[in-house]
Amino acid sequence: MNIFLAFFVLLVSSQHILGDEKIRYDDFKVYRLTPKTVQAVEALRNLEDFNSEYDFWTAVRGVGYPVDIMVAPHLKYRFNDIINSGEFDAEVYISDVQQLIDNERPKTRLAGTVDWTDYNTLDEINDWLMSLVSEYPDKVSLVKAGISYENREILGVKVVFNPGNEDRTVFIESNIHAREWISSAVTTWILNKLLTSKDTNVRQIADIHDWYFVPVFNPDGFVYSHTTDRMWRKTRVPYFLCAGADPNRNWGYYFNTGGSSSNPCSETYGGPSAFSEPSTKTLSEFITTIGPKLGAYIAFHSYSQLMLLPYGYSSSHLDNYQDLYNVGVKAASSLSQKYGTKFQVGNIVELLYVASGGSMDWVKGTFKTPITYTYELRDTGRYGFILPADQIIPSAEETLDSLVTILQEFDKIKKN
């Protein structure tokens, strides 16, 4: 990226923040563009890779696949030139991003509590995790899974209901991308339900597995998304003119072999090297201590309503792809029962795009963990990353239904 262009992008991106005030997104719009031709697809890819003025909420996939792009008001006329080229079907999908942000959370809430009627801050989540250790001392222990660039501890809990299940360990991660708040909300709700539910199916999977929950993989970015910029995605490690790398492109398995950018101002900047981000490096070291005992690794993201299978660097159906796919289809069916929410199931590259350097790929490739899924939770774009808080519990309920199916079905495979 040309140094002068990068500096211009930095100036543009700073126009809607003053001092320590929160960035506002008044009159920012999200356009849904569907490219009609191969040339249009390539033009969008170039726009995503080299022009950081536009925030691609979803990545470019191919002809006929919609792409959601957030556009600042001062860029709308320039963006209209793209729309008017005739190469795209286009619609305004979200007319005012700030209005969604203003309506995302309840107007009144009891600060300091975790009850899943609202999104919680990092401090609230961590305080709640520590309270579980006191409330369930025979089942829950606090784990320090890593450390961030800004020296925040990456906290989680280990939950053991019965001894002897070390080789059936389930690891659940979320909020590796800061702005995907629904992911940690679902993770903490499921954790709470495993501790409190009397449902026989929930109790069955809870009791025969050991569990690790790390709700916020990217604490620096997550805090920043609460205090300063609701749409922040990356880490907060400073790079030339821009901050942050994409922590889900930074893991050392087929690192930077496709789907990540070399532009530090890009949302998909993979970092200068694998594990350059202190959070991913220390998390990988912690996961390695569990290593071969991992029976399942589940990552929660948003949005798009997908259950993604390894790998992100290749469309080849590797390892136990067919088992993962067959069980995933059953799990998607279970997920749809309560609210009719439809999820697609498939390989990352086939359903989305090449995305190398992800956490699930690293776990699968390093430890051959049999059960590996990445969820892209609600919705399909009407709210995008700004899912209203009243959807937290429904999203968590349906996700737990699918998780029960995954673990029960793989248990049958293992017995056979």
TrEMBL record:
InterPro entries in alphabetical order: CARBOXYPEPT_ZN_2, M14A-like_propep, M14A_act_pep, Peptidase_M14
- Per the Swiss-Prot or TrEMBL record, the active site comprises E376 (proton donor/acceptor)
Keyword Disulfide bond part of the UniProt annotation: yes
Query: Please, one GO biological process term?
Result: proteolysis
Q: Which CDD domains match?
A: M14_CP_A-B_like
Q: Which Gene3D superfamilies match?
A: Metallocarboxypeptidase-like (3.30.70.340), Zn peptidases (3.40.630.10)
May I ask which residue range the UniProt record assigns to the signal sequence?
Answer: 1-19
Keywords on record: Carboxypeptidase, Disulfide bond, Hydrolase, Metal-binding, Metalloprotease, Protease, Secreted, Signal, Zinc
Protein name, please?
Zinc carboxypeptidase A 1
- The organism is Tenebrio molitor
